[in-house]
Each structure stands twice: as structure tokens, then as C-alpha cells.
Design brief:
By secondary structure, the chain is mainly beta. The protein has one helix and 18 strands.
């Protein structure tokens, strides 16, 4: 009787095992895609030249040429290989394909100075395509799809320096050693400064008053930097500070 019971239990165990194998699901994430990181140009920035610099890395869920026992029996070993197969970058919809076959054991890095990018606003998109194959327990290699990934950035090319115009000075009416300086700049700036008598530049936020000037001749120049790093300068103006007349 015990022999019959043991045989029945073994038969049930085998049947359960066969059911489990037939409904087996691969233990990797089909949706994990290559990880793209754009170092340059940074999204939302102004640049005076375009350096394209990005990195692609494998996601944590990828297996690369690894064998694992994922089945029920010891013979159920599966091998998986996943690879980055191509990279495409687009500037304003114009695409360029990069030879990028890599298993991503180490990061895929790309850097290129892009010429002939016109002044103005632009869009960048980077696409990474990968594929995979796995070998099942019967030794048969089969492909499986991996979704493409992409990252985007928007940037503005500005290679022209700010223009500073209408630079004037006038006495402030309160002290014979102070003047009021006014000027105009044709674009938003990240920094404004002035230099008087070839001394160190003084940072300002706009029209300003310069105090504690010595009596006599002076020269003044204003500088401005825009958000792309271009620096413009005004013409040099010359003026004299004279003491207030003494009323007798």
C-alpha cells in the first residue's frame, strides 16, 4: 500500500511540476531600457557653441551572458544576453545614427562638438535601441524585444555678445565726487559690471551711482555677460569731476 501511495504522490508532484514549467514566466523585466543621461547641452540653457555629450548605461535589471537556474529541474538553465544596438540623436528633427553596439559592461560615452547650429532655440532628442536573446533549457537561442528609450533637452544658441548703448554720466547733485551712470543693454544678462580708470571691475545690477571719485579726469567702461557666456563692452567715456563752486 505504501508503495502505491508513494507512486501516486510522485505522479502528482511531476504533474504539478509540468504545469509550473508550462506557465513559467521569464524573471527579467521586458520593459527595462538603456539609461540615457545628457550632460551637454543642459536642458533650458543658453550656449554660444554646442557640445553634445551624453552617457548611456545599462539598467539594473539587465543580465549579460549570465546563466541562471530558473526552471524546476536542475537542467532548466537559461542564458541571457542584452545589448545596446544603436543610438540616434536628433537636432530639430534632423537625425544622425551612431555606431553604438555595446553590452554596456561599462558606460557608453559620446562627445562631439556640433558645428553649423544656427542662432536661436533648438530641440535635442537622443534615442537608444537595444535587443536581447536568451537560450532556453533546450539550448535554443530566441530573441526578445527591448523597448527603445529616449531623453530630450531644449537649448538656445547665442554667440553674439550683448550690446551696451547710450552710456551717459551726470553729476548726482549731492556731491562733487559722485556721478550717476545710465546705459541700455539689448538682452537679458547674467552679470553687469563697470571699470573706472582701469581699476578692478565692480559688479552692478543696472544704472548706478559711483561715489568717492577723486577730483579730475576719469574714464569709464561698462561690461555685460549674457546667459550663454558672451561678454560685451561699451565704448569708453571720459569725464571730469570738479568741486562745487563756492558761493561767497
Amino acid at each position: 500500500m505504501s508503495t502505491i501511495i508513494s507512486l501516486l504522490l510522485f505522479t502528482l508532484a511531476v504533474a504539478e511540476s509540468m504545469t509550473t514549467v508550462s506557465s513559467w514566466v521569464a524573471p527579467w523585466d521586458w520593459e527595462e531600457t538603456p539609461l540615457i543621461s545628457i550632460q551637454s547641452p543642459v536642458n533650458g540653457t543658453h550656449v554660444n557653441s554646442v557640445l553634445l555629450n551624453f552617457t548611456i548605461e545599462k539598467p539594473t535589471g539587465w543580465f549579460n551572458n549570465q546563466s541562471q537556474q530558473w526552471g524546476i529541474f536542475a537542467s532548466d538553465n537559461f542564458a541571457i544576453e542584452q545589448m545596446l544596438t544603436s543610438v540616434v540623436y536628433e537636432i530639430d528633427g534632423n537625425s544622425t545614427t551612431i555606431n553604438a553596439e555595446s553590452n554596456l559592461f561599462s558606460s557608453f560615452n559620446y562627445s562631439m562638438n556640433l558645428a553649423n547650429i544656427e542662432e536661436g532655440d533648438h530641440s535635442l532628442r537622443i534615442y537608444a535601441t537595444a535587443t536581447g536573446v536568451y537560450r532556453n533549457s533546450h539550448g535554443i537561442w530566441q530573441p526578445f524585444p527591448i523597448n527603445s528609450s529616449y531623453e530630450k533637452a531644449f537649448f538656445t544658441v547665442d554667440s553674439k555678445p550683448p550690446k551696451i548703448s547710450d552710456l551717459y554720466w551726470s553729476a548726482d547733485g549731492k556731491s562733487d565726487t559722485s556721478i550717476i551712470v545710465t546705459f541700455k543693454i539689448n538682452e537679458p544678462t547674467s552679470l553687469i559690471s563697470y571699470c573706472i580708470d582701469n581699476q578692478a571691475n565692480i559688479t552692478i545690477t543696472g544704472n548706478t551711482t559711483i561715489s568717492n571719485l577723486s577730483k579730475g579726469a576719469h574714464e569709464l567702461r561698462v561690461y555685460a555677460a549674457d546667459y550663454a557666456g558672451n561678454i560685451g563692452s561699451s565704448e569708453t567715456i571720459y569725464f571730469n569731476t570738479e568741486p562745487f563752486p563756492v558761493l561767497l
